[in-house]
Amino acid sequence: MALNGGYKTVSITVLIATCLVLADGDVIRGTYHAWWVILPLPVSAVQGMINQSNSLRDILMVKPTWDAWPEDKHPVLMEIGREQDCGLIFPSWLRSNFLEYKFDIPFVQSKSGGNPLNYKVVLYEDSQVNSISSDVAYKLNATKAAMKMTENSYTISKNGAIFSALFSSNNTWFTASAMPEFQVYKDVANLKWFGGRGLETCAQHHYDFSSARIRPAAVLNMTFTPNLLNTFFPVYGFHRNPLSGIDSFGSIEIVTNFTMSLPQSCT
């Protein structure tokens, strides 16, 4: 849904925020078509990315309990895709289709304890309305950017900074249950998440993995400008193998339905 003009943007954002406050239970629904890419980065680099925000100085990393995960690395996740028929469960006329990219640092925790969480470092959308509502309602570091998605590529452009990725997906789609290696992605997807303003606001996606379709997808090439994600990101170009029994942390392409909770306490 395209809305133009400052008045309409503010009005629709206020309406969304009001509905979120008044609703009970999950309030957002949609279908997510994306490439999910886990990257093992040096622990020191990931800690630097977290410490870049003064509001996250009391955040610690928690080692995932995955077999064969390297001791000197911490996982980060890129969610690179499109939201379809996404928006409030009611009224349905507020739903829209839009591109959305998320850079996450999962398995972090407050120094005071609690369950592991997923820190959404930055979020890019090609919709001004959705980026504002993500910021206002969920306290995410959300920004509108010029974005394009094809069947095998994805690009983001913002103030001269560029992200570009090229993928090669398996021809065959599988159910999530047919690939036990997919569990690492489920572990991340099931975490509560928060944005760059600290642990004042969390939320959670609830994915319908029983009906999801997945297929292994190689990252043939991915490059980006450092300041598009985080200046502490240690590499600015790489490739990844597809998820498989040989590479249990490889990348995938996924189509899945989801609902999303209200903003809530992180504790």
Describe the protein in words.
The protein has helices at 6-22, 43-51, 128-138, 183-189, 226-229; strands at 28-42, 59-61, 73-88, 96-110, 113-125, 142-144, 146-149, 153-158, 161-169, 174-175, 193-194, 202-203, 205-207, 213-224, 237-240, 252-260. The chain has a single domain, classed as Beta Barrel (Acetoacetate decarboxylase-like). Helix content is 18%, strand content 44%. By secondary structure, it is an alpha+beta fold.
Short description:
The chain is α+β, with helices and mostly antiparallel strands. The protein has five helices and 16 strands.
Number of H/I helices: 5
How would you state the average pLDDT, rounded? Answer: 90
Question: Which sequence of SSEs, written as H and E, runs from N to C?
Answer: HEHEEEEHEEEEEHEEEEHEE
CATH topology: Acetoacetate decarboxylase-like
Strand percentage lies at 35-45%
User: How many beta-strand elements?
Assistant: 16
CATH class: Mainly Beta
Count of discrete structural domains: 1
Low-confidence stretches: 1-14, 18-23
Helix content: 10-25%
- Based on CA inertia axes, which overall geometry fits? globular
Record keyword descriptors for this entry:
alpha+beta; Acetoacetate decarboxylase-like; 16-stranded mixed beta sheet; 267 residues; 5 helices; single chain
